[in-house]
Amino acid sequence: MVKGLYTGWNGMLEEQRRMDVMTNNLANSNTVGYKKEGTTNAAFARQLALRIRDSGDFNFARGLGDIQQGDKIGETYTDWSQGSFKVTDEKSNLAIGGDGLFAIAYTDKQGNTSVKYTRDGEFTVDNQGYFRTGNGDYLLDMNGATSGQISEANYVRVDPLQTYTVDELGNIWQNNTIVDNVGVVDVNNTDYLSKYGENLYNLENGGTVRRGQNFRIEQGALETSNVNVVDEMVQMITIQRAYEAGQKVVQAEDETMDQAAGQVGKIGG
């Protein structure tokens, strides 16, 4: 009976965790460049059940077989599939088609600057010509993105008094001359990327970056999130039903235990 309570409770806990992931996806369905998350299932280790004090062999514990302990969330993963493009006609807005990430010189509240990665290309150009994020952080060029070196020399910059274009390779042109380039990098394994917050990713130990190989830059457009709102809602309904099923299991086990406890004193009466 206690096993039943545990199984029901654990199922409710795991469905709540899945619901948290789905809720976060829905909350970011309109976030530029957001990549949705999903979960995988993993089974708890099986336990061998034994019947002790068997009438046939008093001193021998007879094996009854393995007991499944239920499922748990194996891992949370990021779905890196391409989002659709939304045309904005803002020259500083850039969208990545294919693989790759923008590299950002991110400065935290303590004033520490480090390289972060994002698919969010909603940049603006300040009065000095630097490409900056909505939080004021700087976009890195290919040299800064691949080397991890943060300096003004590696911040993407144009002459703000002249018009500019960005080609598919990320080269920035002014007066028929390449004046800078946009850093787009690939990661050796996206498992080394962890969500930092603010639509940015951290590169964990063991991860390496290189010049992007399979991308194109679309100027005047933004990549929308890859969240399908209808699919997320359907999954949330499924999760809610599974959660309610777990509640019923716990309630039924609780009632059974109450009955068993109430009838103990009546045995032999």
TrEMBL record:
Coiled coil ranges: none
Record keyword Ligase present: no
Domain (Flagellar basal-body/hook protein C-terminal): residue spans on this chain: 219-261
GO cellular component: a single term: bacterial-type flagellum basal body
Biological process (GO), any one: bacterial-type flagellum-dependent swarming motility
Ranges of residues in domain Flagellar basal body rod protein N-terminal: 5-35
Amino-acid biosynthesis as UniProt keyword: no
InterPro entries: Flag_bb_rod_N, Flagellar_basal_body_rod_CS, Flagellar_FlgE/F/G, Flg_bb/hook_C_dom, FlgE/F/G-like, LlgE_F_G-like_D1
Keyword line: Bacterial flagellum, Cell projection, Cilium, Flagellum
Localization per record: Bacterial flagellum basal body
Broad class of the protein's primary localization: other
Flagellar hook protein FlgE/F/G-like D1 domain ranges (all copies): 95-171
UniProt similarity note: Belongs to the flagella basal body rod proteins family.
Listed PANTHER family: FLAGELLAR BASAL-BODY ROD PROTEIN FLGG, FLAGELLAR PROTEIN
Record-given protein name: Flagellar hook-basal body protein
Organism: Candidatus Weimeria bifida
